[in-house]
Inverse folding.
């Protein structure tokens, strides 16, 4: 695992030319993201109901956009409708979502979180925030501020790239 203490290379462009420094930083950040992903997964598994990252993602999408139909959920998750249907079957069996007939389109079914589904998402978010706070407590205040500033810049840059690519990746 690489360390986030430096950017590598001998100068602004690294020893081998332009772009090498960015690749080194990208590798270091990827290592940190792996650690965060592990923290995220472990925190989520400590909840009353163990859900896969895929299931949690589906619930978060439905929380953000209540009433989506199966096709829209599948597209949002970039999975096929049969896979989304099986995923929803499991979430419905666990009491986390329900399928309701659309009030104006008789042949369309809406996917809606249940109270239990919202409760589980809230529990996961709280556990993840607490786990992250423990790690942040081990950092100096200036390091936390730099991380926060860097994350905001990352999100801004990512959003800008998504708009340039016609919305992909945003």
């Amino acid at each position: 695992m690489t360390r986030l203490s430096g950017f590598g290379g001998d100068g602004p462009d690294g020893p081998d030319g332009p772009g090498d420094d960015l690749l080194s930083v990208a590798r270091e950040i990827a290592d940190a993201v792996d650690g965060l992903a592990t923290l995220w997964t472990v925190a989520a598994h400590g909840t009353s109901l163990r859900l896969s990252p895929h299931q949690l993602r589906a619930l978060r999408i439905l929380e953000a956009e209540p009433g989506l139909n199966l096709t829209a959920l599948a597209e949002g998750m970039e999975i096929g409708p049969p896979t989304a249907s099986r995923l929803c079957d499991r979430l419905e069996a666990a009491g986390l979502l329900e399928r309701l007939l659309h009030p104006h389109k008789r042949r369309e079914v809406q996917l809606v979180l249940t109270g239990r589904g919202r409760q589980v998402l809230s529990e996961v978010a709280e556990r993840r925030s607490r786990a992250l706070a423990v790690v942040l407590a081990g950092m100096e205040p200036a390091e936390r501020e730099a991380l926060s500033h860097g994350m905001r810049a990352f999100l801004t840059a990512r959003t800008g790239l998504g708009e340039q690519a016609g919305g992909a990746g945003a």
